[in-house]
Amino acid sequence: MNNNLISKSVNTCAGCGLEIVIRLALNILGEKTIIVIPPGCAALFSGYSNETTISVPGFQCNLGNTAAVAGGIRAGLDMQGIEDVYVLGFAGDGATVDIGLQSLSGMLERNDKVIYICYDNEAYMNTGIQDSGSTPGNAITRTTPGGKLIAKKDILRIVESHNIPYIASASVAYIKDLRNKIERAKTVQGTSYIHVHTPCPTGWGFQPSQTIEVAKKAVQTAIFELYEIIDGEKKTNKTINNILPEKEYLEIQKRFKREE
Ligand SMILES: Cc1ncc(C[n+]2csc(CCOP(=O)(O)OP(=O)(O)O)c2C)c(N)n1
Ligand code: SF4
Ligand SMILES: [Mg+2]
C-alpha cells in the first residue's frame, strides 16, 4: 500500500469524485504501475507540461486509444519478460464508451493483461459538459439543454459480451467494495474492467460536500447497480432491500431540474 504516489494538492474541482478513484487505485496498485490516461479531467489532474502530480510512469494517449496504448505497453513488458508491473488504463466515460470503444473492444478481445478503470462522470466534463453516450436520459448538458433524449449506454453489457475474466461496476460511495474490486483485478490473468460511478459537482450541479451522498443515492435508488462478473458468473455486491424513489437521487442535482 502506498499513500504517497499522488501529490497532496491537485487541480480538480472541490468534491471531485474522480480524485477519490485515482488516489485509491494508485494506493492499491502501488509504484510498479504504468498509467495510461487520455485527455479529460484525469489528464489535467495528472499535471501540465513537465510538471506532474503522479509519481508513477505514465503516458497521455489520445482520447480514442487508451486501451490500445495500454495493451501495447503490456505487450512491450511481456517482450522483456517483465511480469510484476500493472498496466492501468484510466479513462473517462467519453474516452471509453464513445470514442475509445473500438480500441477498448480490441483490447477486450485480445484479453490483454490490463486493468481498465472508467471513471464515469456521465459527460465530457473537461471540455465544458457535453453529453456522452454515458449521460443518462433527461440530463441537461451544454449539448442537451432540454435534457438528453436517449438513455445511458450500458457499456458494462458491451464489455460483458467480450467474455473477459473480470468485470465490475463500483461507486465512490462504497470504497471498501471498490477497494476489493481493484484488489481482485490485480490477480486477474487477462483484462479487468471496472466501471466507477463518479459524481461531478461541477457538471451535475450539486455542492462539493454532497459527492458521496449523490453517489450513494444512485445505488440506493437502484439507478446504479453494484456487481461483478467473475469468469462469466454475475454476483450482486449490494442488495438494496428498501429501494428509494428515483426522485431522491434526481432532485439533488441541477442537471435534472427543468425551468417551470
Ligand atoms: C479526438 C479528440 N476529440 C476531442 C478532444 C477534446 N477533448 C479533450 S478532453 C475531452 C472530454 C473527455 O471526456 P471524458 O472522457 O468523459 O473525460 P472527462 O473530461 O469527463 O473527465 C474532449 C472532448 C480530443 N482531445 N480528442
Ligand atoms: S469537472 Fe467534474 S470531473 Fe472534472 S475536475 Fe471538476 S468535478 Fe472533477
Ligand atoms: Mg466524462
Quick overview:
With 260 residues, the protein is an alpha/beta fold. It has helices spanning 17-29, 41-46, 66-79, 93-98, 101-110, 155-160, 175-187, 201-204, 211-220, 247-250, and strands spanning 33-37, 58-60, 86-92, 115-120, 166-171, 192-197, 227-230, 233-236. The protein is built from ten helices and eight strands.
Summarize the SSE layout with pairings.
Blueprint: H1 17-29, E1 33-37, H2 41-46, E2 58-60, H3 66-79, E3 86-92, H4 93-98, H5 101-110, E4 115-120, H6 155-160, E5 166-171, H7 175-187, E6 192-197, H8 201-204, H9 211-220, E7 227-230, E8 233-236, H10 247-250
Parallel strand pairs: 1-2, 1-3, 3-4, 4-6, 5-6
Antiparallel strand pairs: 5-7, 7-8
Ligands and ions found: thiamine diphosphate, iron/sulfur cluster, magnesium ion
H/I helix tally:
10
Oligomer description: single chain
Content-based structural category: alpha/beta
Termini Cα gap:
51 Å
State the helical fraction.
25-40%
For the sheet with most strands, the description reads: 8 strands, mixed
Q: What does this 3D model show about the protein?
A:
By secondary structure, the chain is of the alpha/beta class. The chain has one domain: Thiamin diphosphate (ThDP)-binding fold, Pyr/PP domains (Rossmann fold). It contains ten helices and eight strands. An eight-stranded mixed β-sheet has the order 2-1-3-4-6-5-7-8, with helices on both faces. Strand 5, helix 7 and strand 6 form a beta-alpha-beta unit. Helix 1 crosses helix 7 and helix 3 runs parallel beside helix 5. The longest helix is centred in the N-terminal third of the chain and has 14 residues. Bound molecules: thiamine diphosphate, iron/sulfur cluster and magnesium ion (MG). The site of thiamine diphosphate (TPP) has 16 residues, from helix 2 and helix 4.
